[in-house]
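Weekly puzzle thread! Below is a chain. First person to post its structure in token form gets bragging rights.
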Amino acid sequence: IIKEILPKTGYIHPATKIFQALRIEVNKEFEEIESFLAIVPEYLVVGGRLACISFHSLEDGLVKKFYMANKQSFSCFNNNKIILPTDDEVRENKAARSAKLRILEKIS
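Winning reply:
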């Protein structure tokens, strides 16, 4: 039904985003990420690192928002650069193509 309504753009099936949205809502994924990030500062010691892998921009936005709001306590371990998968990693695992890794280090 979705395929009939939405045209296919690129190599991603039109239903992919629909099912992604349903999964996000059912699992309360954004709420879980926000809850986790809210308690991270009290569990990490100075010098401790938080590595976050996100698979789409909305998840990555939550991590970035957390970092921006906590710059007094965290620094970006990898010089404000997002670590992306290599071409070899994507060839081995297509799901990695959208992965972004951010590493934050607690400084105070």
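Puzzle host: Confirmed. Bonus trivia for everyone else. The two ends are 53 Å apart (CA to CA).
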